[in-house]
Amino acid sequence: MTQPLTPSTLVERYLAALERSDLDAVLALFTPSGRVHSPLYGERPAAEFYPDLFSDTASSRLTLRRVMSAVDGAPVISFWFRFDWVLADGSPAPFTVVDIAELAPDGRIETLHIVYDTASVREAFDARRPPLTPA
């Protein structure tokens, strides 16, 4: 049996895979039912969220600021980082973000909550995408 991922290893692997737009490596860090809650993309299965994110990305550089673990021992970690995002059309859309990861017993991500202010990136992001139609 393999050892559960440590929070620092999980974050290191996640940010490296995210920066490379490596879909397989990112999804390997999630459970099969893993979900992502994003301010720009909404709540979606990880297997749908990351292909869309990567198709909207020309390049990205991620700079970790801090990893935090829950004090009460709950399987939750958060990590604060700078996301220097360049959209597929070349528009820069940088922001600072905190991701909150609810972990499965094996250390993989069950649910990821992405938290940041979209004001600085919303206009560039929306200009690239067709308007959302109401359900």
Please describe the biggest sheet, giving its number of strands, its sense, and whether it closes into a barrel: 6 strands, mixed
End-to-end CA span: 45 Å
Strand content: 35-45%
Fraction of residues in helix: 25-40%
Mean of pLDDT: 88
Strand order across the biggest sheet?
A: 2-1-6-5-4-3
State the oligomer. Answer: single chain
Our count of helices gives 4
Topology:
Layout: H1 7-20, H2 23-27, E1 30-38, E2 42-45, H3 46-55, E3 57-69, E4 76-87, E5 95-103, E6 109-115, H4 122-128
Parallel strand pairs: 1-6
Antiparallel strand pairs: 1-2, 3-4, 4-5, 5-6
Q: Can you offer a commentary on this structure?
A:
The chain has 4 helices and 6 strands. The protein has helices spanning 7-20, 23-27, 46-55, 122-128; strands spanning 30-38, 42-45, 57-69, 76-87, 95-103, 109-115. It has a 6-stranded mixed beta sheet with strand order 2-1-6-5-4-3, covered by helices on one side. A hairpin with a 5-residue loop joins strand 5 (95-103) and strand 6. The mean pLDDT is 88.
Structure described in brief:
By secondary structure, the chain is an alpha+beta fold. The protein has four helices and six strands, in the order H-H-E-E-H-E-E-E-E-H.
What labels describe this entry?
six-stranded mixed beta sheet, 135 residues, alpha+beta
